[in-house]
Write a structure and sequence with these properties.
Length: 221
Amino acid sequence: MIGRLAGRLILRGSDHVMIDVGGVGYVVYVNERTLAALPGAGEAAALYTDLLVREDLLQLFGFLTPVEKEWHRLLMGVQGIGAKASMAILGALGPDGVSRAIALGDAAAVRTAPGVGPKIAQRLVNELKDKAPAVMAMGAGPVANAPAAPADPDPVIAPDSPPPASAPASSAGAQAEALSALANLGYAPADAARAVTEAAGDGADDTSSLIRAALKRLAPA
C-alpha cells in the first residue's frame, strides 16, 4: 500500500498531478481544493495517498492531511459513494466542512457537492455521524490549557462562565476529546471550552453528542 508520496511535482492536470519520486512519476488524482493548495511544477510536494484497486484499474488519490484521507476512506464505504463522489464532497466542503456537516447531521451541506443527491447525502450523515468525533480528533494534540477535569477552573473558560459541576472521569474524557476535535477544526480554546461546558450542562455526556451540541452553539446566528 502506498500511503504517502513526497517528491517533485512535474505535471498538473485538471483533476490530477504527477509527482516524481526517485525518477518514477506517480499520477495522483486530487480534488479542487487540494489541487489549488499544491505548489507549481518543479517544486517539492507531498501527499497522503489512498490506492483504489479495481479489476482493470489502479488509481492513487491524494490528500493534504491524514484527516482528509480518512474521510475519503469512510465516504467510500457508504453505499452509493464512489471515488468521484467522495472527491467532489471533499472538494466542495473540505475536510473540516465534512466533519461539521456529518457531526451536525447536516445533509443539506453535503448536497452542495456536485452529483450528490438528497438520499445519498442523508444516508451518508446517518451512517457516519458516530464516526465523526474520532476523525475530527485525528492529528490534534492536547488543547493548550485545556482543563484536566471539568471541576477545575481554567484560563480557557471565559470569566463570565460558571464553573462546571463535577463529572465522572468518563465524562471528563469525553469533554477533553470534544475540545481536541473542536481545536482541530480551528475554534478558539475559550469558545470551544465554553460550548463544551454548556453542552455538558445540558446533558450531553459522550464525545459525539458533546461535539454536535457544541458545534450548534458555535454556529453563526
